[in-house]
């Protein structure tokens, strides 16, 4: 069944064309020559909706958000945000839980909040497709970022200018320009079920196109999916140039792309540069094998 947000589901059977190997125009921006190697630190979510940070061989629980997988982890890996079944936006940081907004649409897994690149604000979908942002420390009033039909699995670009999400009917992707407060429909999308990450300039998105558009799920954050890089301006699609069974991919703030590859005993993170050249391989902990990847920490 398709995700229901405002409008009802639309039936259809549309196949997504196969993506080409990643061209330079669709590749992430080149990382600085001095960019340090990744340590393997990351944030994961398990099937019990517990968000945990892994770093230096140790696990730290950020939050256990309850029965609803309507959550997000901050880019710095220190905070968690989620929306309760009752429609309250909550944040946990430094061991304290704060309610930042109320009367939102709870009980809808795809309506996940998203953290700003500096981990200081949280954006969320409010009434009438309005995207709002509020300071994570609870000070000040919420501000309007704009109106966009793309309210599901919001992602925020590292330059801070763009947010992207897909529609409740899972039939379109929209990119919201925070500067102009205008949203534009992305090209090249007929059916879509996940937005994992945006390139630093906000032009490209790591997305999931469903293999069977008649079975789109409930909008929960996927544990694993085949990632496709979509240029939201031109509609061009590109595969991530890594062999093996891909489980997702994630842009870093400096432009590197991290692909997640399935393994027998543990998964592997493969770091790529602009040209798709492999820079680094990192073994994930075995405990993370069946967990969803929320953030790769630099």
Short descriptors:
298 residues; mainly beta; disordered N terminus
What features would you describe in this structure?
This protein is mainly β and 298 residues long. The protein has strands at 20-21, 42-45, 50-55, 58-64, 71-73, 80-83, 89-93, 96-101, 114-115, 121-125, 130-135, 143-147, 152-156, 162-166, 173-177, 182-185, 194-198, 204-208, 228-231, 237-239, 246-251, 257-261, 268-272, 278-283, 292-296. Strands 1-20-19-18-17 form a 5-stranded mixed beta sheet, with no helix packed on it. The radius of gyration is 18 Å and the shape is globular.
Brief overview:
By secondary structure, the chain is mainly beta. Helices cover 0% and strands 40% of the residues.
Strand content: 35-45%
* Quaternary organisation: single chain
**Number of separate strands:** 25
Biggest β-sheet: strands ordered side by side in the sheet = 1-20-19-18-17
Share of residues in helices:
under 10%
What's the Cα radius of gyration?
A: 18 Å
What structural class should be given to the helix and strand makeup? mainly beta
Question: How many DSSP H or I helices?
Answer: 0
User: Which whole number gives the mean pLDDT?
Assistant: 90
Query: What is the H/E order?
Result: EEEEEEEEEEEEEEEEEEEEEEEEE
Backbone shape: globular
How far apart the termini lie comes to 37 Å
In this structure, how is the largest beta sheet organized? 5 strands, mixed
Low-confidence stretches at least 5 residues in length (pLDDT < 50)? Answer: 1-31
């Amino acid at each position: 069944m398709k995700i229901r947000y405002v409008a009802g589901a639309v039936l259809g059977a549309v196949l997504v064309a196969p993506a080409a190997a990643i061209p330079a125009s669709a590749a992430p921006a080149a990382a600085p020559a001095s960019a340090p190697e990744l340590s393997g630190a990351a944030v994961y979510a398990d099937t019990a909706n517990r968000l945990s940070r892994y770093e230096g061989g140790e696990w730290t629980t950020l939050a256990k958000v309850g029965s609803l997988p309507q959550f997000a982890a901050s880019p710095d890996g220190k905070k968690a945000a989620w929306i309760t079944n009752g429609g309250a936006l909550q944040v946990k940081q430094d061991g304290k839980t704060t309610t930042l907004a109320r009367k939102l649409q709870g009980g809808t897994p795809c309506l996940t909040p998203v953290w700003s690149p500096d981990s200081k604000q949280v954006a969320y979908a409010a009434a009438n497709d309005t995207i709002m942002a509020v300071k994570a420390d609870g000070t000040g009033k919420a501000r309007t970022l704009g109106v966009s039909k793309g309210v599901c699995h919001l992602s925020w670009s590292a330059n801070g200018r763009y947010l992207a999400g897909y529609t409740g009917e899972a039939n379109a992707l929209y990119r919201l320009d925070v500067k102009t407060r205008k949203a534009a429909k992305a090209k090249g999308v007929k059916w879509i079920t996940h937005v994992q990450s945006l390139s630093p300039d906000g032009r490209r998105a790591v997305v999931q196109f469903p293999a069977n558009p008649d079975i789109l799920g409930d909008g929960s954050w996927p544990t694993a999916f085949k990632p496709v890089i979509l240029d939201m301006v031109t509609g061009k699609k590109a595969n991530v140039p890594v062999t093996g069974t891909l489980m997702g991919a994630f842009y870093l703030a400096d432009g590197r792309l991290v692909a997640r590859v399935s393994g027998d005993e543990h998964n592997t993170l493969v770091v790529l540069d602009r040209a798709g050249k492999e820079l680094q391989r990192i073994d994930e902990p075995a405990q993370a094998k069946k967990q969803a990847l929320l953030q790769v920490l630099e």
